[in-house]
Amino acid sequence: MLLKKILPALLLLTLVVCLTTRCKGPEPGVMTTFDKGNLEKYWKITDVITSDGQLQLEKNEASATSKFRVRDFELNLKMKTIQGAIGQLNFATTESYDSGNPKGYSVLINNSDYSIGQAQKTGSLSRIRNNFVRATSDDEWFDLNIAVIGNHIKVSVNGKVMSEYLEPQNAKRLEGLSGMVLSKSFISLRKVNDQGKILVADWKIKPITEGKDGAILPVKSDSLTDIIDSLNQREFPLIDFHVHLKGGLTMDQAVAHAKENGFCYGVAANCGLKFPVTNDSTLNSYLSSIQKEPVFKAMQCEGREWVTLFTPEAVAGFDYIFTDAMTWTDYKGRRLRLWIPEETFVDNDQQFMDMLVGKIEAILDGEPVDIHVNPTYLPAQLIARYDELWTKDRMDRVINALVRNQTALEINSRFKLPSIGFIKRAKAAGVKFTFGTNNAKNDDLGRLEYSIKAIREAHLTTEDMFLPRPRGERKILKKGLPAKVTG
Ligand SMILES: [Zn+2]
Predict the structure, then answer these.
(1) How far away, in angstroms, is 300 Cα from ligand 1 center?
(2) Pick the CATH number of 27-208 from 1.10.1020.10, 2.60.120.560, 3.10.530.10, 3.40.390.10
(3) To 5 degrees, how large is the angle CA 81–CA 86–CA 91?
(4) What is the Å distance from ligand 1's center to 243 Cα?
(5) Which residues make up the environment of ion ligand 1, defined by Cβ < 5 Å?
(6) Over the Cα atoms of the chain, what is R_g?
(7) pLDDT per residue as tens digits for the range 390-446
């Protein structure tokens, strides 16, 4: 009789002990390295080969999923992708990740060249804080670090923060994405395509005790934040391609501003006559000085003389290059800089406009740049008559030149240019767009306000947006430089 009462209790106790033993993860506060000896204790392995102390994921859907649950942690991996392999590191997730109804967060592993395969690159906190910048490439070992503390998620590659997010209370998510929130749950490394291999040479985790003081950081919240969050959830490429380190703005400050606001940056050097980058050697040393920074590396081609100062091979070291039509020589041989009133000569409004449009056409046809920036800019004396002077005819001449040269059009947030009407017309003609701020100082970076307004008003989609060309497709290499200065 007594046995009958004790037996079920004993069985239950055994079950509880077993379950807790099974679920017990690495010790909080201690960095645990996974190796052959403890791998299967902590991870459920599917199609993962271990050899030479490395894990290899080759088959699509190969995975290692934790047997333990963890909420706050620091995770470090030394990895390498080969031949276009793509993977995900999921956390706060289920034991089997369902991309159609995702639970938790997903960090992308993809090192393909720009415009090849998936647009997002390694370190992207997918659908939350998308990263489009390539921090490493196939066949190179890299460090991936993911830290989750309280509501703060930080993803770094080779020591540089690629994406960062503060999860608000009651985070707003699009339909189907409501499971994308933090919780005490599983971690899973998965391969998600058929190509190549993912190798893991080193894998460590430090679970962090939850609820440490100050772990919940305040989250900025306004209507623009909501729009930016929802564009990220739609995987719209939110990239400001036109940022300068001017007025004391440092690379770290620029990157922090982008991360804080949920987009990516392309940082441009001004390259041309009387600029710090003025020949191949200054160009190469500039590029190597910023090589590791988590931003696109851009060249602003200055004046019209730039085509005579650099070789195409050196210029192709940049991810993309751009120029504007604000500097040119007029019919009387005067060098105009349209943003400087003393250097701008408007003898006759209509004649000036025709000359400007002709210069834009000559620049677009002659200079192999990827983006036409500060577009439709008018000097101060004409700006009030923008809509009247930019006639349909003139707009179409510029749009046709963009199309025939496959040059993208910048939507400039600081100048609020071009007009929404111009953008709609360009979209209808098949022009690709970029966003850009062209900050002049360290406090005018903004938050892409005008570009985001253009998305809504001109109905821009991901397909309308430009992404840098892969190395083999760079215009500067295919087309070369003109023999003489244009415009
Ligand atoms: Zn600029």
Answers:
(1) 6
(2) 2.60.120.560
(3) 105
(4) 7
(5) 300, 438
(6) 27
(7) 999 999 999 999 999 999 999 999 999 999 999 999 999 999 999 999 999 999 999
